[in-house]
Amino acid sequence: MQKYYFKGLDCPDCAHKLEVELNKQSYVKAAQVSFNTNTLYLDCQDFAKVLELIKRLEPEMEILQEQAKEDAPLSVYPLLSCVVLFVLSVGVLHFVASPIVRDLAYVLLAGVYLFAGKDVFLGAFNSLRNKRFFDENTLMLSATIAAFFVGAYEESVSVMVFFSAGEFLQKLAIKRSKKSLQALLDVAPNLAFVKTEEGLKQVRPEELQIGDVVVVKVGEKIPTDGVVLNGESLLDQKPLTGEPMPVNVRENSPVLGGSINLKAVLEVKVSRAYSDSSVAKIVDLVSNAVSQKSQTEKLITTFAKYYTPAVFFIALAIATIPPLLGHGSFSEWVYRGLIALMVSCPCALVISIPLGYFGGVGAASRLGVLVKSVHTLETLTKIKNIAFDKTGTLSKGEFEVVDVVSQPNFSREDVLRFAGCAQILSTHPIAKSIQKACQNLCEHQIEEFNEIGGMGVQAKCHANLIIAGNEQILHKYNIPHPCCSLEGTIVHVATNGEYIGYIVVADTLKEDAKGSLEALKKEGLEHFCILSGDNEHATKSVAKVLDCTYHAGLLPEQKAAAFEDFKATHKGLSAFVGDGINDAPTLAMADVGVGMGSASQVSKESADIVITNNALSSIVQVFKIARKTRRIVIENIVFALGVKALFLILGVAGEASLWEAVFGDVGVTLIALANSMRTMRIK
Question: What are phi and psi of 206, to 5 degrees?
Fold first, then answer.
């Protein structure tokens, strides 16, 4: 879908209605209006007709190719003028007896009504023209005009003034929340300085090519992912990973786009196009997440569709049925019906619920946790079971070679040399430990390379066909080997069909692993399991420390099958946390898949949540954020519906006035809005 930006649309309910109308059109294949990020995603056959429809439905809305600059700050002076003139008019009517002065006060009151309600009049006219009879503008206009006819002049004007005040404060709160989200998305760099023969050339990050050399001065952002060519400095990566400590980088250090250079000038060679960089992925993930709707939000949107007309007809029944049956006058019951009408707008729910979820997504992102959709945040609150990959997830994945055992006619150096050749192109943590151990032992001339998930690698180097991996890979290629019981993580090595020995490597558990699993238990998770491709001994030792069940020596398809059994065995939804290519199928089938920061690109694509800082404690944090967000959303639903029901009852009983009913609409919306913004704050 094509992405556009817009401005001039300041109502989330209007954004939803526009999205519904766009998707009804035959010339629109798909449309999504993201109010939180001011973006319109559109797949259409006739863009001119789309613009025409938008102009008719939302005359103030403008479609832009690039993101608009920040709007001018809202001015409070027109609102203050209305309030002052209203108070002055009411004061005159209550304390001055002169008929001429009182007539002038009524004229002033009418002027205040017209000035305060100008946006309501325009909105109501536009709604009626588009056959939308039950939005807040038409309801507010109907209520205030009816109040005039029953002689409640001051109250009618007060409703319009207070409604305008509420709308102003609501816009202010929404503007602030959007600013918080924009600050989150501003991690993206907006310029780069490319080193050329003529000197430095300023370009946009999107224009950079792989291999370009960029110069990053102190205080500037690294434009895209790359490798340091020259210089040594400290980088602030907190906006990307949530890690507060600056990272020291020097020549050959990999760097992330969006990191802020703190200490000295760096020359960085571009290793990824901007569109594939970490910072671009973060911006896209956050933007897409907050543009999607949670199940609760969808439910409330559907509820609002029927709730407003229902309350309108209830108000109409209150105003007409009792006097027709001889119980009181029409003016008395019309006034009571107007109070019911005042509380019919569902804005408190329509605005506060999506704001709460997007606040939760933003809070997680600032901790280095990327939640791909608000639906995922909602699903997290229902997770009862969680399974983990071991290597690189629960353990550091920083293996070290602790022993090398060779067969007769071969030396330890032979085993390391051949293993190093086989593993030179692999990015697996075990392969990296072997690469480190056999540095300078040989030169590599790789002719073929094949990584076999869950087993190991096959490579051809200097005309030698080399196999390196676990015992299963030896069986796969029918390589005879001694039958012996080995404990630990073992890499068997064979060349040209002959077994030459094995390498023992060791991994260590992450410092926060045990504490994180205990914290997850406190968050309500009940069952834990380790699903690993590593051997029985290594997996069992980790499971014993963490006090959970395990399955070892699993191939990718076996890991997926084991997770399926794990889900079927335990009640409730299940999550999986992993980082390797072989974890991708399991991540995809989990109710919530969590990819660690060290994960392969395939795993990150399959995951619903990406932990950029690779910390298990961040998984605990995102569960806490999800539960906090859900709790705040429920609070808003109960509070808003409870207060509206109360005013409906008080209105029918004649115990409430229009002045008080305004609180039942505008006041509740503002309180719910303020409550939703608590999700953005992280303790």
Answer: -65, -20
Write the CB contacts of 157 (distance below 8 Å, at least 6 apart in sequence).
Answer: 86, 89, 109, 110, 112, 113, 116, 144
Residue 460 backbone zone (phi > 0: left; psi -120 to 50: alpha; other: beta) = beta
Residue 451 has pLDDT above 70, yes or no: yes
Position 42 pLDDT exceeds 60? yes
Residue 492 has pLDDT above 90, yes or no: yes
Residues 307-340: pLDDT tens digits? 778 877 888 888 889 988 888 888 888 888 888 7
Site of tokens 């109710």:
591
Residue type, 446: I
Q: What is the pLDDT of residues 260-290, one digit of tens each?
A: 888 889 999 999 888 877 677 666 655 555 4
- Non-local (6+) Cβ contacts of 636 within 8 A are 348, 349, 352, 353, 356, 672, 675, 676
- Say if residue 435's pLDDT is above 80: yes
How many whole angstroms separate alpha carbon 311 and alpha carbon 157?
Answer: 22
Location of structure tokens 């399926």: 564
Give the three-class secondary structure for 246. coil
Contact 86, 158 (CB under 8 A): yes
User: DSSP secondary structure string, 274-314?
Assistant: GGGSHHHHHHHHHHHHHHS--HHHHHHHHHHHHHHHHHHHH
Alpha-carbon gap, residue 539 to 390, rounded angstroms: 7
Residue 246 · residue 236 · CB < 8 Å:
yes
Would you call 43 a catalytic residue per the annotation? no
Find tokens 């897409």 and name the residue. 288
Which string of b and e fits 643-673 if b means at least 16 CB within 10 Å? bbeebbebbbeeebbbeebbbbbbbbbbbbb
Task: State pTM to two decimals.
Answer: 0.63
Number of Cβ within 10 Å of residue 565's Cβ equals 11
DSSP-based helix, strand, coil % in the chain, nearest 5: 50, 20, 30
Catalytic hit among 10, 389, 534, 591: 389
**Tokens 């019919």 identify what position?**
344
* Mean pLDDT score across all residues of the chain: 81
Which strand (E) or helix (H) includes residue 251?
A: none
Contact 660, 647 (CB under 8 A): yes
User: In the chain, what percentage of residues exceed pLDDT 90?
Assistant: 14
| Rounded-to-integer distance, Cα 584 and Cα 602, Å | 6
Beta bridge partners of 573: 383
- What whole-number distance in Å separates Cα of residue 580 and Cα of residue 428? 8
Reported as type and span, the H/E element at residue 348 is helix 347-366
Cα-only R_g, the chain: 32
By three-state DSSP, how is residue 479 classified?
coil
Q: Are 91 and 134 in contact (CB under 8 A)?
A: no
In which region does residue 243 sit, left (phi positive, over 0), alpha (psi from -120 to 50) or beta (all else)? beta
In the chain, the amino acid numbered 48 is A
Beta bridge mates, 234: 248
For 104-116, the three-class secondary structure string (H helix, E strand, C coil) is HHHHHHHHHHHHH
**CB neighbours (10 Å) of residue 95?**
7
User: Under 8 Å CB-to-CB from 156, ≥6 apart: which residues?
Assistant: 113, 144, 145, 147, 148, 658
